[in-house]
TrEMBL record, chains A, B, C, D:
Pfam families in the record: LDcluster4 (PF18306)
PANTHER family for the chain: CYTOKININ RIBOSIDE 5'-MONOPHOSPHATE PHOSPHORIBOHYDROLASE (PTHR43393), LYSINE DECARBOXYLASE-LIKE PROTEIN (PTHR43393:SF3)
Transmembrane segments: none
Organism: Nocardia suismassiliense
Protein name, per record: LOG family protein
Length: 157, 157, 157, 157
């Protein structure tokens, strides 16, 4: 296990930002590289948490705007490919942690489940029902950042 | 209004295939170009319906496998970009019609809502709740193929 | 043989535009679908020639700007992926015809040769030497539009 | 100046591998992050040189094959987008160094010149002539690895 993508909205609540910062710190302390979208909100918070703990953080941007990049990144890929970059984040990760909900975040959750074979863990965020109204097991639901990281790294209870 | 993307799973129910075929036919009869994923299930059914009515159908494939392409396509783009092709379908459409549910289909719904500014209409498929369990208005829910096409073309009741 | 990509610069000479228009017309008359970048210069000229002869022309755009699209296209894919769209054009074609030279056009030539297995024909355009100064057989050099189309369709003399 | 892409063929000569290893080492010693394709040949050599000097090296792969990755990478992006990944490498770099020649490498040179505004430096590799046979100033030609790095970093003589 070497690379975990942490996905979440550009505009997030204070609780989500706190979760993201802690998830970043715990991943860095576990020696895991963090992949994120390199923007604001959850992306900036996880980069802050991981870099503050000395971890490696790679931002994968949708655009090529140097000014739109959050602090705390070790390196930045400017894809210039819009939301298609979400597919790269998901394809590159050994696990995905979803924090909060937005349309972009939902696309990452969906792409991660489409790929299959990796843990997709969530802290908060949206829920899914199938056509009959039955809840879908879209993600492994975590109770707090430590639980999310443990489950992403395959040591979940 | 010129191009409508019709998205749905590779493995679909008979009802979904019937809906997709009829949606394809109605779009073709309205002089609208159909964009689809060019594979099986809903993709094959919409291509069949639209081409049978003399319409233009463009398939946008995730791979470069010539043998994986469904019948009825006027032209095929082989992106070789995996599920990132979903972003192209959505970015190219003046409206999106979702038929049925799957992880790939959900990513298209999410990317379409992330883009914003275009109708995203659904026939069947999955439902979304926010973190509090409140239903999200993810799509314009249609009652049948004619209603779906009318709403996609901006003439919905 | 069903789809031929015609690649060339946005700003081209009158001769290149004439060549492109004629290539488009001949491809359409042969029942072949034309793929192009959907912009100005060679792209606009080939679309004009092919559509004038009743052919199918698919434009694959780097951006999502509806206003930047040339006339004569049957359908347009808005990739929003910048020059990565060149890879899609090349991957989708059964043959590539290069008209004139530019950096974008050169990337298409290079991607087509990297892919291999398809004819890459040129009318005018740049030449390549290896590190020792020996000319590289980068493309099949055509003498005029009819020759270019014949060689692309595998009927070259 | 923070990120330099080093591009070159998967199958390279011993001289090219030596050049790439030295370029990687010099970039790392200058505190610059190396971006590369993460595969064999020049890609493996530059990763080896940079990582041996304690530098950060990011590999950007065309596929999602974990086994195809070279040693020495700090992080790997698995784009699953084929040669479209070349556009990402070039868009992410503050300068590009080309070592040797191949069709994939040529596409990176062409995409870098298409982008414009950044130094594109070469060590060996192919040459370009325009339609009249006049040499094109495709790249800044360097005499050795130290010269290539100096010119990429804007301190060229």
């Amino acid at each position: 296990m070497r690379q975990v993508a942490v996905c979440g909205p550009r505009e997030c609540s204070d609780v989500e930002a706190r979760w993201a910062r802690m998830v970043g710190r715990l991943l860095a302390e576990a020696g895991v590289t963090v992949l994120c979208g390199g923007g604001g909100g959850v992306m900036a918070a996880v980069a802050d948490g991981a870099s503050g703990a000395g971890g490696l953080v790679i931002g994968v941007r949708p655009d090529t705007e140097r000014g739109a990049v959050c602090a705390g990144l070790s390196a930045v890929l400017f894809t210039g490919m819009g939301e298609a970059r979400n597919a790269i984040l998901v394809a590159s990760a050994d696990a995905v942690i979803i924090i909060g909900g937005s349309w972009g975040t939902l696309s990452e959750l969906a792409l991660a489940r489409h790929r299959g074979g990796i843990p997709v863990v969530s802290l908060g965020g949206w829920q899914l029902l199938d056509a009959d109204g039955t809840p879908l097991d879209a993600t492994i639901s975590a109770t707090d950042p430590a639980d999310a990281v443990a489950r992403a790294l395959g040591a979940g209870s």
